[in-house]
């Protein structure tokens, strides 16, 4: 219940333009490694590979980017089999930082993709008790990306996996 309230408050602050974004340069590789380490503590040993320049920096709000990436990574883990693969890559592209989280999990039906960022929307209603969640994570992820002036794109195929590409402007 506490997590639900916190997430609803975050969305309300975003709606009211009251959510502060404290941009500073930080090392995105270190953040990704921290998230992978945390994920392995929570979910056990998973096949997660990271492809990123160890010195890559981004000018963004570290806490918000951490929450954004945690949401996408948690979904990748939840919807990928135990022996499945998750790849996280980050690189600088045209003064932006592009972060891609790709899995070979269950995927998202094409007709559902336009709705996955809607609040309380769940692709697989029958599995909601099994996987948990309230249908707010991707709404928050989109809000965080928008607060940074970036974009989030999704490519997915049912039973083949999903790819989330996050692009964050890397200028001051």
Sum this structure up briefly:
This protein is of the alpha+beta class and 172 residues long. The protein has helices spanning 2-15, 28-43, 62-78, 128-131, 137-147, and strands at residues 24-27, 47-52, 57-60, 85-93, 96-103, 151-157, 161-169.
Written account of the structure:
By secondary structure, this protein is an alpha+beta fold. Helices cover 36% and strands 27% of the residues. It has five helices and seven strands; from the N terminus they run H-E-H-E-E-H-E-E-H-H-E-E. The chain has helices spanning 2-15, 28-43, 62-78, 128-131, 137-147; strands at residues 24-27, 47-52, 57-60, 85-93, 96-103, 151-157, 161-169. It has a five-stranded mixed sheet, covered by helices on one side. Strand 4 and strand 5 form a beta hairpin. It is globular and about 40 Å long. Residues 125-130 have low confidence and may be disordered.
Write the layout of secondary structure elements.
Layout (H helix, E strand, L loop, with lengths): L1 H14 L8 E4 H16 L3 E6 L4 E4 L1 H17 L6 E9 L2 E8 L24 H4 L5 H11 L3 E7 L3 E9 L3
Parallel strand pairs: 2-4
Antiparallel strand pairs: 1-3, 4-5, 5-7, 6-7
List key phrases describing it:
7 strands; two-stranded antiparallel sheet; 172 residues; alpha+beta
